[in-house]
Amino acid sequence: MEKKHSTSFAWFISKCNQLYTNIQLTDVAICKVTKILEDEKQKDSTQLICDALGCNRDQYTKLKSPIAEYSEFVSKVRSDQAEFAIRQLYGYFANYLQNILSELYPYKPYLISQLNDDNASKQHLTYKEIIELQNYDNITKEIINRIFRAMENKRDTAGLIDKIIKSFKINVSDEITKKALCYFELRHLLVHHKGLADGDYVAKFKDYYKKQVIQPNKRIRTTYEVYRNAQSAIHKLCETIDSELYRIITIAQQE
Q1: Closest to 115 measured CA to CA, from 55, 180, 167
Q2: What burial class does residue 197 get, using C-beta atoms within 10 Å of its C-beta: 0-12 exposed, 13-18 middle, 19+ buried?
Q3: Which one of 9, 29, 71, 115 is most buried, by most CB atoms within 10 A?
């Protein structure tokens, strides 16, 4: 079967699939724990969570909370798991972009070297650095790292994606990009603003939240459903970008 995607995309899919499996298993476990705790609460509301679950008090010291508080306790765990997964998705996508630039570099070195056109002189390698890197493979890796780090340091995910799309003249629909950006920007809000939505985020992305109403200065609830939507949107963007970039690699290899 003809290969349709890059090695970088295969890595991205592998990491996402493992994450998806982990989160699904965790969510099922949380649902079952919730059922057990609710049943045990009905029997004896004075129990501790650890006792209701039949686990060792000394080993699971953080589960000595009263069973009456289990709902808040479990909701926090579920929310934290979804938040963790959304952050991980961003990391996998960022790594994909850096990796695919490395795959493209042998065929489009000058184009890639110009991706970060701001303060280009700061990207120059000194004689000392070239000598210490020892060979061309290491020099290539250093060039890619510097270019990508400089682009990513601008903290503008939309700009980063747009730069790559325009530089390589690839076709990605605005809707595919916007939907993924909804969750990239959610990750930004989770990391830097305690998950609180701002007016701009609400205006741009409220339609992607079907099961909750998001409002300015209110925390966006991170749920399994939100993570699942993020997984789908980011996967679609990555797949679309990769099919275009891999086509460029394939054509260049045939020349």
Answers
A1: 167
A2: buried
A3: 9
Q: Say if residues 8 and 100 touch (Cβ distance below 8 Å).
A: yes
Q: How far is residue 185 from each of residues 20, 73, 254, measured CA to CA in Å?
A: 20, 27, 39
Q: For the segment 38-62, what is each residue's pLDDT rounded down to a tens digit?
A: 999 999 999 999 999 999 999 999 9
Is the pLDDT at 99 greater than 60? The verdict is yes
CB 217 within 8 A of CB 196: yes
In the chain, where do the E strands start and end? Answer: none
Both tokens of residue 230?
A: 């993020």
pLDDT at site 133 = 73
Instruction: Count each helix (H run) and each strand (E run) in the chain, helices first.
Output: 10, 0
Residue 42: partners with Cβ closer than 8 Å, 6 or more residues away: none
CB 174 within 8 A of CB 111: no
As a whole number of Å, the end-to-end CA separation of the chain is 22
User: How distant, in Å, are the alpha carbons of 6, 124, 133, 145, 245 from that of 113?
Assistant: 20, 10, 18, 11, 16
Cβ atoms within 10 Å, residue 156:
12
- Joined together, the tokens standing for residue 19 give 């994450």
Asked if 158 and 127 count as a contact pair (C-beta separation under 8 A), the reply is no
3-state secondary structure of 91: helix
